[in-house]
Amino acid sequence: MQISVNGYIGFATVLDQGPTINIGPESTDWPKHQDPAMIAPYLCKQQIPQEMNPGMRSGVFFRLMMRQSLFGRGSGSNMNLGGSYQSSFFGQSAMQACQGTSGGYVHCDVNSDYFIDEMMRWLQEGVAGAAAFRADAALVVTWYNTASAISGRSDMDAGQLATYQLIWLTDQAARLSYVILNYDKLGFDAADFRANSRSGRCQAVFNGGNHTGLVPVDPTQAFKNTPKVLSQRSGVPHMVRGRYMFRVDDVVRPAGCSNKTGGTYPMLIYPNIVNMMGEMTVDVNAICLDRSQTYILMIEQRQTATCTVLNPAIARCHLPKIYDWGTKTVYFQPQSGGANDEKAFVGYIYFVPPTLDPMRLDIGNIYDWFKNPVPYPVMPLIWYPRNFTNPDLATHMETVRISDDAMYSVQLGLYVIGYREYKDDGIKKFRPEHRIICRLATYSNRNTYEYRWKPQEERINIYQVEQWYMDEWQRTHELYNYRFGYLKLAPLKPNQNELNPTFLLSGLVSAPISLHWLWTTNNPEFSTTTFSQGDETARVEFVKQKALEMCHDWYDEDGAQWNFIRDTETNSSCPCIERQAMADLGRFMPHPRCSQAFRDITCTVAIGARNCYMSAQNIYGSYAGSGQGYESENTARFPTHYGQVCCYDDAGHLMQTSYQPVIKVTPDVPYNPGFPMRAYEFGTAPYMGQYEVPGLSAFHNDYMPYFLCC
Which residues form the AMOP domain (predicted)? Predict the structure, then answer.
């Protein structure tokens, strides 16, 4: 890496002999001429003036700050006893640098720890999602009183000098990094005589190099008129003028806020992979916010999300339930529409089922929750405390900063939510129902310094319920309508009705689990606290008997559905070998939960299969009657609500399907390598088919009945 007086740090050789330095897809002819990668706070030909007014310094200064913990030391132990210790910021000798590093510019002492912590505090105030980032190293480069390349003494006396700074932070694994740019003063627009800017216009850009793209620091018209505007504007107007923040990893994402009005400007959304159950919060960097305005996040084809202003750069939006799987475009703008000529900012959120959500609540080994009895009476519960802020603080946010630990002290409740869906003839489709069954326990969110990036680990005692939201009769009768459910961790509402909460605040949800362990918690037989072997056996027997009854109910209900096997077998029969399924990508695709093509392979159903594929869209049916009369020829093809799953063994051969006799490899998991699904995994478009909740309908209609019946 090279640091240049011309206002950039470069990651390739930069030919900067000519009057202008050309970079980016527009102005270079790569690969004939080079297009170097660089971070350029103020790129144009500059000089370090030698003869300046007395008392003024000029130069390019740099230092590398690292945490002492990277070198296995506690704080304050870098007092090198051999030499004299001086705490000057720039002038440390090489023997006081970090171990094993060259040059005196590498600092790791109390000052560098403090500096990095302060930078993390700055980032939190301006970047959505920076609360979870822990910086371990920072490169600081300061261009101090540089002058434009073709300028004389009179220009410098007139104050045409520039001072600006780049701070580049990264974590220990170097997977995530952020850049902060500070502009103190900018006295020239270009590297030209008397700043008339005919040639060598100054630019502020991130360039990926080799025509991979270029991101300007400020894309507004004001910057195109005069680059000097950078030191007057700010991406974090509530902190200071002239400061801009960016997230730089695989893609450069502008953070802070911008007043760009024309065209589209990308929003920074954290998290941008979101649970389709909704009811969680996302943080947004977009337009510069005004507390007196109301802002909304509009979601393509769905309800809008209300947003609260945390500070002028960050808004926090509370998402509704989405019930869709895939990427949706979102638009952020004031509720007043474009009254003050604000354009909507555009962003993208990928909605996924709870089993694929990277932010989901970690509740231990998912397979254990499906066993009868659950092997451990105490299960783990893990979450990151910075995901929760105190709901009371939203009203007086002016007095609280995001980096203030008091924001994160909140009481959290762990709720069990049961899921079922039933046929509603009024709307001609299945209506999903999420019922809050009980609160298992209450936890307090830890808000000390180290829990900014460390997860909080607690325990769930699964046979203790803190508060039931069902009465005795409902617990003995209605509880068994819910074949499965999930856990949700959410802040306690200050004045919520303790006996019947209708809705919970935004929080984190877990993957779907079986709820059979709850059935015995309210039964008088099992309310004793002593655990004898007889009790355990009785509990297992009780669950078996109830599961059998629920299995019979499923047979009765499922027999009333259309006979879908004929459709799935004729219109979407499985390819015999895996190579054909891979080649047949239009009809089949890797199964999102049971394929090694995806990251998450906690497949709850296909034990013994190496890879599974599923039909890439709803299967079309070709008849709507009994199939005995002539009506089947006269009906048009119509999309059904089911799909096909095909699984292959390690040799790549199609495995047997579940409606043929199969061998079970493990006693507690049904062995069904491939099967037609009654509820298509991706759901169906609204008002077209029967099922609409992706993933959950498949659990309700296909997966859980196997556990109940087998």
Answer: 543-710
- My answer on whether 568 and 552 are in the same domain is no
Q: What is the DSSP string of 523-584?
A: SGGG--S---HHHHHHHHHHHHHHHHHHHHHHHHHHHTS---HHHHHHHSPPPSBHHHHHH-
Query: Token pair of 71, please?
Result: 């070198």
Torsion of CA 530, 534, 536, 539, to 10 degrees: -110
Element (H, E) at 473: helix 472-477
Residue 400 has pLDDT above 70, yes or no: no
Task: Choose between 622 and 591: higher pLDDT.
Answer: 591
**116 class by beta-carbon count within 10 Å (0-12 exposed, 13-18 middle, 19+ buried):** buried
Closest by CA to 465, choosing from 521, 512, 530, is 521
Q: Strands (DSSP E) along 624-688, which ranges?
A: 638-639, 643-648, 675-677
Which residue, chain included where needed, has tokens 């030919």? Answer: 15
Integer Cα distance of 191 and 332 in angstroms: 39
The rounded distance, in Å, linking the Cα atoms of 146 and 43 is 12
* DSSP-derived secondary structure letter, 689: S
Could you report the per-residue pLDDT of 64-121, keeping only the tens digit for each?
999 888 876 654 444 444 334 444 445 566 666 777 777 778 888 888 899 999 999 8
Instruction: Residue 304: give the domain boundaries.
Output: 268-352
In this structure, are 685 and 662 located in the same domain? yes
* 508, pLDDT greater than 80: yes
Residue 512: is its pLDDT beyond 50? yes
Q: Identify whether residues 235 and 377 lie together within a single domain.
A: no
Task: Show Cβ contacts of residue 700 under 8 Å, excluding neighbours closer than 6 positions.
Answer: 419, 420, 421, 483, 484, 679
Distance, CA of 284 to CA of 318 (rounded, Å): 11
Q: Do 425 and 464 reside in the same domain of the chain?
A: yes
Taking only the tens place, the pLDDT of each residue in 630-679 is: 555 566 777 777 888 888 877 888 876 544 444 555 555 555 667 778 88
Report, in angstroms and rounded to the nearest whole number, the Rg of the chain calculated over CA atoms: 31
Tell me the average pLDDT across 475-502: 81
The verdict on 400 and 476 lying in the same domain is yes
* Phi–psi pair at 394, nearest 5 degrees: -60, -25
